[in-house]
Amino acid sequence: MDVAYVVQQSTVRPSGSPADSIPVVRLGDIATLVQYGSSALAHVEPTGYPMLRMNNLQDDGWDLRDIKFVEMSPLESERYRLVSGDILINRTNGSRDLVGKSQVFRESGHWVFASYLIRVRVDPKVADPDYVSIYLNSEPGRRQILRSSRQILMSNVNSTELRSLQIPLPALQQQTTLAREVTNALRDRQALRAQSNLAFSQLSGSVLDELGIHHTIGGSPAVAWSVALRTLRLTGRLDALASSPDRVTAIEAIERAADRSSGTLRAVPLGEVASMRRELLAAPEGRFLGLANVESDTGQIAQKVDEASQGAVSQALRYQRGDVLYGRLRPYLNKVHLATSSGACSPEFIVLSPGPEVMPEFLANVMRTSAVVDQAKQLIAGNTLPRVSANDVSRLLLPVPDLEWQRRLCERVEAVREQALESRRRSKEVWESAARSFDAALRGGREEYSND
User: Fold this and answer.
1) Enclosing domain of residue 335
2) End of a domain among 169, 188, 222?
3) pTM to 2 decimals?
4) In this structure, how many other beta carbons lie within 10 angstroms of the beta carbon of residue 262?
5) CATH code for the domain in which residue 363 is found
6) The predicted structure's pLDDT at residue 246
7) 190 inside domain
8) Would residue 383 be called left, alpha or beta, if left means φ above 0 and alpha means ψ between -120 and 50 degrees?
9) Which residue ranges of the chain lie beneath pLDDT 50?
10) Whether 159 and 261 share a structural domain
11) How far, in Å, CA of 131 to CA of 102, rounded?
C-alpha cells in the first residue's frame, strides 16, 4: 500500500471545483503524442545532438548550463527530435518533489531528449502547452502526480499515469491569457533570482579580497608541472592531482597573504582550528539534511528539509547549532552549510565543529571561497561518486585572521547575503501571487478543490 496514494486523495472533479463552467479532461484526451526519451549514451564532447536530461529540468525551469550530446542516426534523431511547444515531464528522480515537474521546450535547433523524460505533445487546436505545463506544476496538478508516483529507490511516474491526469480546460484564448500572466511572473521571478545569484556569486571574491588573497579561479591549463617539497608536506600525498597547479596556486596565494599580514593573518590547516564531529545515528528521526537540500556556493537550504522517519534513513550524523557541514561528495559543488539548529545529516557531509580561534560564520564563508574549493577538488578519489577524505579535508589550508577581523568581515558578508535573500523573498512573493491568481481563475473564486 502506498501511503502517498492515500494521503493525496484530493482530485480535480468536473463539478464543484474548479468552476462548474470549465470542463475537466484527461491529459491523454488532448495529447497527440506521449513518448519516452532515448536511452542512448550521452557525452560531453559537443558532437552530435544536444540532449535534454533529467537534471536540466529544475524546479525553477530549464537549466541549460550542463548540456551533453549524443550521436544518433538521422532516423533515430528525427524520432526524438523536440519541437517547439513539446512538454517535457520528469518521470523519475531521487527527489519526489521533482517527479512530474514539467516545462515547455522552446529552444531553436535540433535537440533530443533522454529516457528519464517523457514528451507530451498536445493538440494546439484545443490546448495551450504552456497552460497545460503550468497546471501540471500547480498545487492541484502536483497533488495528482504525487498520488500517482511510486518510490522504491527513485520516485517514478509512468506514461499511463500521466495520461490519466485530470486537467480543467477553459477556452483556448483563456488558457493563453492565464499562461501569459504566469509566464510574465516567472520572468520577473527569474530576474530577481538572477540579482540574488549574482550577489551570492561575488561573495567568494569579496572574502578573498578582504583577506588580501589574490587567487585566480580556474588556475593553470598546464598538463605537466613540478612541485616543491614543502607543498608535498602540506598535502601529505605524492599523486599528481594533489600537486596540480590549481591546488598549488591556491595554497601559495594564502601563504603570501599570511606573509604580508605581519602576523594578523595565519595560514593554518583546517584540522588545527576545527574538529570533526562524527556522531553516528542509526535510523534517525526528525530533521534530516541531505546534500540535495543545500545549494552550491551559497550554503542556503535549496529544498524542503525532510523529516526522517523510522527506517527511512539507515544512517546519519548528528550536528549541533554552529557546526559547519561540508559536502565531501563532489567537493567542487561547494556545498557548505552553517547549521542554525541541531539535527541529523547525510554521512556525505563532514561535520566541522569550530574551535575558539575561528568563528563559525567565518569558517563557513572561507570554506566556500575558490582558494579552498580549488584545493579540495584536486583531492577527490573515485570515478562514479568522487569524494574527498576526512584526512585530506583536515589538511586544507585556510587563511585565519584574528577574531576581530573575522567579525568585521562576517558583518560585511552578512549584509550582502541579506540583500541577496531579500531579492529571493521578493521573487517568491511574485511567483506565489501569480500562482494564487491562476488557481482562483480555475476555481471560480472558491477556496479549495474538492476531495474524494
Assistant:
1) 203-401
2) 169
3) 0.69
4) 7
5) 3.90.220.20
6) 85
7) no
8) alpha
9) 1-17, 152-154, 219, 308-311, 445-452
10) no
11) 11
Statement to judge: residues 232 and 332 lie in one domain: yes
102 and 215 housed in the same domain = no
Q: How many domains does the chain have?
A: 2
Report the 3 state secondary structure along the chain. Answer: CCHHHHHCCECCCCCCCCCCCCCEEEHHHHEEEEEECECCCCECCCCCEEEECHHHEECCEECCCCCEEECCCHHHHHHCCCCCCCEEEECEECCCCCCCCEEECCCCCCCEEECCEEEEEECCCCCCHHHHHHHHHCHHHHHHHHHHCEECCCEECCHHHHHCCEEECCCHHHHHHHHHHHHHHHHHHHHHHHHHHHHHHCHHHHHHHHCCCCCCCCCCCCCCCCCCHHHHHHHCCCCCHHHCHHHHHHHHHHHHHHHHCCCCEEEEEHHHCEEEECCEEECCCEEEECHHHECCCCCCECCCCEEECCCCCCEEEEECCCCEEEECECHHHCCEEECCCCEEECCCEEEEEECCCCCHHHHHHHHCCHHHHHHHCCCCECCCCCECCHHHHHCCEEEEECHHHHHHHHHHHHHHHHHHHHHHHHHHHHHHHHHHHHHHHHHCCCCCCCEC
User: Positive or negative, the Cα torsion across 209, 211, 217, 220?
Assistant: positive
pLDDT reported for residue 306: 54
**Starting from the edge strand earliest in sequence, which strands make up the sheet with 155-156, in order?**
92-93, 155-156, 150-151
The pLDDT, as a whole number, for residue 232 is 63
67 and 145 assigned to the same domain: yes
Contact 343, 286 (CB under 8 A): yes
Cβ contact 27:451 at 8 Å: no
Q: For residue 419, what are the contacts with CB-CB under 8 A and spacing of at least 6?
A: 199
Q: Which residues of 176-193 are buried (b: 16+ CB within 10 A; e: fewer)?
A: eebbeebeebbeebbebb
User: Are 217 and 121 in the same domain?
Assistant: no
Q: Is there a domain that residue 145 lies in?
A: yes
Do 207 and 144 lie in one domain? The reply is: no
In a domain, 413, yes or no: no
Q: Is residue 182 part of a domain?
A: no
- Residues 6 or more apart from 45 whose CB is under 8 A from it? 69
- What local confidence, expressed as pLDDT, does residue 448 receive? 39
- Residue identified by cell 596556486 is 249
Query: What pLDDT was estimated at residue 233?
Result: 64
Domain shared by 122 and 212, yes or no: no
One domain, residues 333 and 247: yes
**Residue linked to cell 520572468:** 187
